[in-house]
């Protein structure tokens, strides 16, 4: 017999799962609360017990998507032993992960529109941008990047990769070219001996 806490958590997971499925396939604006609760098999009261609004539910979905992308990036980077290879593999993993149309819709298109730019940026900075800043700081300490303030470089690279991911939503056949351009851009930042082409 499930405890109340387990039942609440199951209900919350069902709402996030079904909200995510519907937001990804149809977009935030086209999905109503009634549709979400029907798909999750719960009442509107149950939804409002967990989330004050559809936007708050969407925020939970977006946080889940961001965690998954961050997990993919971290796993890809951690599989490499060389710090530069780790960094560039992580950046490429982000670009590849965000070519998934569901992730694009939730994380890059509806995310800023639904939550507002300020809240979306705060979530991005707390997740992937924080990891990017940590990786850049480590590369600077290792002498693989020139000494410089980390924050501007983090925002420039994060913005470039987010913009590339949005562009790929309408030009998915350009992933290889975009990955190659990202490699050239990152290699241009590198200090010291450059890898052979």
Largest sheet: none
Poorly predicted regions: none
Order of helices and strands: HHHHHHHHH
Specify the overall morphology.
elongated
Q: What Rg do the Cα atoms give?
A: 19 Å
Range of helix content: over 70%
| Global mean pLDDT | 91
Q: How many β-strands, per DSSP?
A: 0
Structural class: mainly alpha
Strand content: under 5%
N-to-C span = 61 Å
Individual helix count: 9
Domain HTH tetR-type: 9-69
Keywords: DNA-binding, Transcription, Transcription regulation
Protein name: TetR/AcrR family transcriptional regulator
DNA-binding region: 32-51
Layout of helices and strands:
Blueprint: H1 4-26, H2 33-40, H3 44-50, H4 54-78, H5 83-97, H6 101-115, H7 117-141, H8 150-170, H9 175-189
Helix pairs in contact: 1-2, 1-4, 1-6, 4-5, 4-6, 4-7, 5-7, 5-8, 5-9, 6-7, 6-8, 7-8
Short description:
The chain is mainly α and 197 residues long. The protein has helices spanning 4-26, 33-40, 44-50, 54-78, 83-97, 101-115, 117-141, 150-170, 175-189. The relative contact order is 0.10.
Describe the structure.
It is built from 9 helices and no strands. The protein has helices at about 5-25, 35-40, 45-50, 55-80, 85-95, 100-115, 115-140, 150-170, 175-190. It is elongated. Keywords: DNA-binding, Transcription, Transcription regulation. InterPro entries: Homeodomain-like_sf (IPR009057), HTH-type_TetR-like_transc_reg (IPR050109), HTH_TetR (IPR001647), Rv0078-like_C (IPR049484). It comes from Actinomadura fulvescens. This is TetR/AcrR family transcriptional regulator.
């Amino acid at each position: 017999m499930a405890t109340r806490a387990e039942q609440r958590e199951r209900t919350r997971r069902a709402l996030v799962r079904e909200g995510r499925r519907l937001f990804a396939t149809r977009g935030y604006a086209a999905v109503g609360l009634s549709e979400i609760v029907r798909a999750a098999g719960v009442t509107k009261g149950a939804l409002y017990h967990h989330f004050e609004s559809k936007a708050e539910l969407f925020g939970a979905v977006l946080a889940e998507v961001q965690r998954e992308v961050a997990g993919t990036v971290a796993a890809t980077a951690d599989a490499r032993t060389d710090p530069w290879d780790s960094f560039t593999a992580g950046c490429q993993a982000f670009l590849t992960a965000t070519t998934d149309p569901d992730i694009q819709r939730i994380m890059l298109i509806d995310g800023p529109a639904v939550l507002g730019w300020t809240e979306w940026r705060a979530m991005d900075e707390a997740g992937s941008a924080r990891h990017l800043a940590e990786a850049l700081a480590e590369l600077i300490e290792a002498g693989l990047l020139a000494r410089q303030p980390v924050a501007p470089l983090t925002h420039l690279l994060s913005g470039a990769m987010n913009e590339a991911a949005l562009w790929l939503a309408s030009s998915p056949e350009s992933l290889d070219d975009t990955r190659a351009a990202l490699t050239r851009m990152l290699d241009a930042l590198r200090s010291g001996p450059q890898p052979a082409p």
